[in-house]
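Incident review: delayed structure delivery

Summary: a single-chain prediction request sat in the queue longer than the usual turnaround. Root cause was a stuck worker, restarted by the on-call engineer. No data loss occurred. The affected request and its eventual output are reproduced below so the record is complete for anyone auditing the incident later.

Affected input:
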Amino acid sequence: MSKFTGTLKKSAVATLVAAAVISGVSIAGPTVTPAAAAATSSVGGTITTAEVLSRAQNWVDRGIPYSQSAYATDVQGRTYRQDCSGFVSMAWHLNTSLTTWSLPQVSHQLSTYDDLQPGDMLDNIDEHVVLFAGWADSGHTTARIMEEAHTGTNARIDSSYYTKSRLSSGGFKAYRYNHISESTPTPTDAGMTNLAGGDFSGDGKADVIAVEASSGKLFYYPGIGGGSLGARVQVGTGWDTMSELTSGNFTGTGNLDLAAVDSDGVLWIYPGNGNGTFGTRIKAGTGWDSMHDLAGLDLNKDGKSDLVAVDSATGKLYAYPGTGNGQFGARVEIGSGWNAMDQIVSPGDLNKDGKPDLVARDVATGNLYVYPGAGVFKGDDTLGARVQIGSGWSAMTNLVSGDFNGDGVGDVDAVQAKAGSTGTFYSYPGTGAINGMNTLGDRVQIGTGW
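Output delivered after worker restart:
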């Protein structure tokens, strides 16, 4: 999964439970109960990191829309301007809504991004400010933020857009509120991150690969049918330096392989052994820290998995044709404007036309879309016109795909979690047709503590 979207998540041990249909919950909108923000601080007084995040989460849960002129209340009834700086002012419990220029007057600049802790802010005084909520990946390459972004959006959490390189090139500086009570960073990475799905064991049931953020250990969760997962097995260490995990038949052996990018931007292919473990890795490229949201799929139906990825600088979507030996050919541009999207995965063939499709979330709206595959490389026509298949997906993270229930149709799994909290793992089964909000069926709970 992507370093460019992911995620304050999960507990150190993921406890999987038997699948159970969650009645009354559909793909159309995962429900979230608004957080009752803690009310322990006084206006302009000392405040804890936990309360800052709780106050911010309250606006996210209430769906407060962006506005430079309107005002909304905090949990105590005090009003703040509904723009980016008003949002941070509200979260810090200031006595008024400051601006991107004046917020640094009540905070102090940090030396590096690595000094950030939840509740700090990232401020470009000329353009925008966001609240830092943690790191979206175990390698600390992408920030998980909370923000009021722009007109037409609501208060939201984003775990994909703000990579360190984007923050640096965008002129964002790190600041800590002067009245934060914690003096040491609050641990933010816990539980499982960087999920990848597919049939790694060759038994016809999709599995999940995930990194335990607290230890950097790589775990294999075998699919056991019906969308459920079995007891996890450790299959690697040192994976806290890796991100952008995705699967595909990259080496041509017939076993499902794993692709990942290290902290230096090197793309590696880990050949699958057919049992949930992996062989000696193959170097497949450099400079991949400039790309985000990698996904593996056979776009041109030549039997070799290709990679798609978004260029962070331009927002263009590129396909890298697989050569079948762990390498990739010259990239082909297949889309533009993709910096607006995150959580890009390929569930396989959603509409049973024999061509793999792509699923992605619109960062601004939280809407989920499917882009039908054409089965050939045709430039911007490689993917067909997108179809909305869900809403309310801003509450979800760590999207992962595969045929988890073994019915021959691709499914989408995702974690629902609030900032700083563990999450619940759900599976959304494919129905076999691209049919708007009925493309995915009612979700099934497959795990807790993620």
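Verification: The CA atoms of residues 259 and 275 lie 16 Å apart.
Action items: add queue-age alerting; document worker restart procedure.
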